[in-house]
Each structure stands twice: as C-alpha cells, then as structure tokens.
Design goal:
By secondary structure, the chain is α/β, with parallel strands linked by helices. The protein is 34% helix and 16% strand. It has 2 domains: 14-150, Glycogen Phosphorylase B (Rossmann fold), CATH 3.40.50.2000; 169-317, Glycogen Phosphorylase B (Rossmann fold, 3-Layer(aba) Sandwich), CATH 3.40.50. The chain has helices spanning 23-28, 30-39, 54-59, 77-89, 102-110, 140-150, 195-207, 221-229, 243-252, 262-269, 284-287, 307-314, and strands at 14-18, 44-49, 65-68, 94-97, 118-121, 128-129, 177-181, 211-214, 235-236, 255-259, 274-278, 294-298. The strands form 2 sheets. It has a 6-stranded parallel beta sheet with strand order 3-2-1-4-5-6, sandwiched between helices. It has a 6-stranded parallel beta sheet with strand order 9-8-7-10-11-12, with helices on both faces.
Length: 318
C-alpha cells in the first residue's frame, strides 16, 4: 500500500473511504466522494483504492491522501497483518465503505477487537449500516445515495469530472470524431456487440465524414485491429489512454457508442452523448452509465442489434 505525502492536520478528524473498483463503480462513486468531502470539509480524508485508480483519485479535489490496496490473498497472513497495522495506525474516526463487498467487510473485522471507528456499510455490527434489505435491487448510484443518507449525509451530487485534465493532442484527432468502445469483460462475451457490427458502423461513420476513434485496453488491441481491417480510416487507441485521457476525449467527441463496460461510465459522466449497448446478460436498471445524455439499447442477444438501428440513433446529429 502507498500513501500520498499529505499528513493529517493537528486536531483534524480522520476519514477513510473504501472504493476498490471496478471502473464503472469507481466513476459512479464520484458523487459520493464529493459529498463526503463536503460533509467533512475540515477533515483529513483518505481513499483506499485499487492501483488503476490511484492517479486520477490523487488528482481529484476529494482526498488528502490515497492508499493503494495490495489486496492480500487469503493465505497471505503477513499481508493481512500489514494491512491491519496500517488501518489501525490510520486512527480513523469514520470509514465509508462504498465497496460493500466481502473483502471490504473483512477490513472492518481487521480493526477489532477493541475500538473500531464509526463505519458506514454493510459489515455486521457496524455503527451506520445500510440496512435496506432491497439494496441489491437498486442502481449503484441510488444505493450509495441511500447509504450516505443513513450515515447522515443528506445531499449527494451527480458525478462531476470537470476537474479532470489531460493533453490529448498526441492523438492527432480529426473532428468531428465519434468514440467506439467495442470491448468489455473477456469472460463475458455475451455483453459485446459483435465486431462485424462495429466494423459496419465504423465504415458508415467514415463515409459520413466522421472519424471513428476506437478505444480499449492493450488486451483488446486484436479486437480493434480486426474491426479496423474493414475500416482503415478508424483510429486505434487501444492501450494508449489513461482514465484522464478518456474523459478529455469524451468532452470533444460528437458521441460515443459502446458495450456495457467501464469506459462508457467515464465517457457518460464526462458529459458526452452516449449510446450504451446491453444484452440480457446485465440489467441497465442496476448498472447503466449515468450522464447528461445517455441512451440504452437492449436486446436479448446483441448479435440481433443491426447497424442501421445504431446509426439511426446517431444520424440526427451526425
């Protein structure tokens, strides 16, 4: 675990926020991050998160320190003991567990026996439980809003990414451009619109004078290259974009179209007009991206979603 250098101010209360991932959930916690910062404006606020989110969290206006969770394995007794010592030494007055997973619940147990801080979450015996038995049927944002309300924070804003800055000039974009996000979880291929359909959309965009910009992880580069073999004018940014880059690319884009995957949450929260494609494998009522202009298209199987229908959504503003 690593800590940003800021030290607690003398006499300031100490707050810990736990949000480990994944990307979509992290983006949807931006509103709660802001609410916690405002409610504890004079406190020293630390975030415990995954390594992938440390840089953007440290650049945000919400935290005085960022710790990276090393996520010790079940059998790593030394790792768990080091984590326990760090949490205890943090001397936190209150913890907001926005992860509410088995792992983050175990962190509550690590702080015993003896004095534990006030704890907002679902850990058994915590001081400020999110006690709604239907919480698993709520959208992530509404669930976190209710959790914070039960902990005394009445107002939670929508995610605001206006502070995210990055120089994207190196990508040599040719406006107008449209972001395409064809990837997603490797073990959930049923959540992806087929590459052939993305290629067809890419070709249509290029023919209309708009630059298709395809984004994804380095592992998704073969997928993106396969799409671009049928659409050479497209721009391949696989493995080249930081989270800050994605937010800034979204601000300048005409629109974005992608699967139910983390980058679409970031793109939507940045204010880009977004079309998110869902299959029956996930429920948009529970996890759809939120933003100022987000549309969801859902099919039992995404192979049944034709390019023409996606283009119909885009064409009025093309």
């Amino acid at each position: 675990m690593s800590q940003a250098p800021a030290a607690p101010r003398p006499g300031a209360s100490r707050i810990l926020v736990v949000k480990l991932g994944a990307l979509g959930d992290f983006v949807q916690a931006m509103g709660p991050f802001a609410a916690i910062r405002q409610y504890h404006r004079d406190a020293h606020v630390t975030l415990l998160t995954g390594a992938a989110f440390a840089n953007i969290a440290a650049a945000s206006p919400y935290f005085d320190a960022v710790w990276v969770d090393d996520r010790p394995r079940m059998w790593d007794i030394g790792g768990w003991l080091r984590l326990r010592r760090k949490l205890i030494d943090g001397a936190f007055d209150r913890v907001y567990d926005l992860q509410t997973s088995d792992r983050s619940g175990a962190y509550f147990l690590l702080l015993g026996p003896g004095r534990r801080p006030q704890w907002s979450g679902i850990a058994l015996g915590c001081s400020h439980p999110h006690s709604n038995p239907g919480r698993g049927l709520m959208h992530t944002i509404e669930r976190q809003v209710e959790q914070l309300r039960m902990a005394g924070i009445a107002t939670v804003p929508a995610p605001d990414l206006s502070w995210v800055r990055a120089d994207i000039s190196r990508f040599r974009l040719r406006p107008p451009y449209v972001l395409l996000v064809p990837g997603g979880s490797l073990h959930r291929p049923e959540k992806r619109w087929p590459a052939t359909q993305f290629a067809g959309l890419c070709t249509t965009l290029a023919a209309s004078g708009q630059q298709p910009v395809l984004m994804g992880t380095a592992a998704e580069k073969p997928l993106i290259q396969a799409i671009l073999r049928d659409c050479p004018p497209g721009l391949d940014l696989a493995g080249q974009t930081s989270l800050a880059d994605i937010a800034n690319l979204a601000r300048g884009a005409k629109a974005a179209i992608g699967n139910d995957t983390g980058p679409m949450h970031l793109i939507a929260a940045a204010g880009c007009r977004a079309l998110v494609l869902f299959s029956s494998a996930s429920d948009p009522a529970l996890c759809a991206p939120r933003g100022g202009d987000v549309t969801v298209l859902r099919r039992q199987g995404l192979a049944d979603l034709p390019v023409a229908e996606v283009w119909e959504w885009l064409a009025p503003r093309a």
